[in-house]
Amino acid sequence: xxxxxxxxxxxTGGAGFVGSNLVDRLIExxxxxxxxxxxxxxxxxxESVKLHQNFSLIEGNILDPPKLQEAMQDCDLVVHLAANxxxxxxxxxxxxxxxxxxxxxxxxxxxxxxxxxxxxxFASTGSVYGDAKIIPTPEDHPFPIQTSLYGASKAAGxxxxxxxxxxxxxxxxxxxxxxxLGERYSHGHVLDFCRSLNKNPHELRVLxxxxxxxxxxYVQDSINAIFCAIDKADEQINIFNIGTxxxxxxxxxxxxxxxxxxxxPKLLTTGGDRGWVGDSPFIxxxxxxxxxxxxxxxxxxxxxxxxxxxxxxxxxxxLSTL
Amino acid sequence: xxxxxxxxxxxTGGAGFVGSNLVDRLIExxxxxxxxxxxxxxxxxxESVKLHQNFSLIEGNILDPPKLQEAMQDCDLVVHLAANxxxxxxxxxxxxxxxxxxxxxxxxxxxxxxxxxxxxxFASTGSVYGDAKIIPTPEDHPFPIQTSLYGASKAAGxxxxxxxxxxxxxxxxxxxxxxxLGERYSHGHVLDFCRSLNKNPHELRVLxxxxxxxxxxYVQDSINAIFCAIDKADEQINIFNIGTxxxxxxxxxxxxxxxxxxxxPKLLTTGGDRGWVGDSPFIxxxxxxxxxxxxxxxxxxxxxxxxxxxxxxxxxxxLSTL
Lengths: 322, 322
Hints:
Two copies of one chain form a homodimer.
Chain A: E1 8-12, H1 17-26, E2 31-36, E3 55-59, H2 65-71, E4 77-80, H3 94-114, E5 119-125, H4 149-168, E6 171-177, E7 179-181, H5 189-199, E8 203-206, E9 213-214, E10 216-218, H6 219-232, E11 237-242, E12 248-249, H7 250-261, E13 266-269, H8 288-291, H9 301-315, H10 317-320
Parallel strand pairs in A: 1-2, 1-4, 2-3, 4-5, 5-6, 6-11, 7-10, 8-13
Antiparallel strand pairs in A: 9-12
Helix pairs in contact in A: 2-3, 3-4, 5-7, 7-9
């Protein structure tokens, strides 16, 4: 991370899927403060680090500004991962994305300002492009039209961070990730399919027509990309797409999941080119910008899915208790 | 407005500079409900309509969701103008833009949803492009980097509206305006310069180097553009830049203001290519999209400035009491 000097790194959402994997890798070199409200996790992801001398945990919500501000004291870098991370259920509770992802990001920025911390890494999403007109989609894609409350809330978070860079001299690394897979994966289609197939291995209900084209990336590859960008990109505002060099159809994904689970279900598609309101029929990001810094994904989508299925079989309560 | 049939139109910020001019023109054909908290105006802008049978006024804040929802009952179209409209002071109170312009827009959308109203016109801003890379700037400019909290908050409002179109079947007209001038103008550089020259006609302090290139438009031309777009553009999401076919330097603007005031001050520039944090050194929008619908501005920037100076001389308390 930029220098070999030990830093004190504040990780919001550090107990979650991505956060805890990041913390595992930061902890040997850096002091790490995890700030998490355990809304998406139960603390088990932190078993591997909880006794480490470099580790501290503060249970708190990013929607609690005084607590957030106090917790952030003396940190050098904020990695802001805490979010409502599920794109699918936005329309059921439209305030959730706004509060957690936009207002929450504002609170993080204000806490940084109060503590004179100026460097932030932010987990944004490929969903900010809405239904991209250019595929693979570059970072300078035309001004997007949002198609989901999740994408809109993350795009708004990006905008706030950028305005803090202009207004208060912050420096930012913004990552537009495709969906991540791997150990500690906790929500999304692979989990849904595994649980469904666990209940009934003979049939699988597929939202949409199954031909939606999606990209996924292994979580460790994403973390490598975060490290690479913070090490090597030193503009005031650094924005990177993070994804693999391939995409797959939902049908491909199902084939790999069923291969991993050794089942052979009949597929029942609900039809239409979108699985849900705001679902994008084709997500595939142009990652040449981060690749120009020397980063490359090490795992294919198939490998990432098989690793995830393997993890879920041994760790997801609904699956592993059988 | 789309049909000759009378509609019930809800105008947030309807007592303000732009809103009250819009209401004056809507009132003969339509029922108009103005919702305003009088934070930017004192009610005098509504003198011309307050006794009209088609007019009703509800004093309220867009940050008061229950009141907003109740006030909006039975309306057919929402014109959402209420905002923190001053781009300059964002960094002094960074929550103000977020609350008024992003959360406020969310509240408007939620009130619409509760009342089953699906059509919204929204006053956005050319500031959403940040420091535009392409000038004149088209609506599909590359994914912008925000340079002000104001621009970020309006871009976030746009994103929310777009997500409501995708998620709830709303239809939207989004207008990215350059700065407006004309009768009832209430804040901005023309007022600041007029007041300053009123105090001391011999000297004028100019933020920046005076060479910032800006676009302005006469408020009635903007209202014509709103009517034209709602009449003729029927996509689900309709986004239009609104501005004149020209730009001027701050020095040009000062020359016209001093011409209008008949003064000849010495100019003292503070230097630098920006007047303030987040100031854009060059704003000039490509308006070919709205022009293709038949709209054209009727007034030049010079004419708009002279009309504004004339209005301020007779209506601004600080100027007219001399």
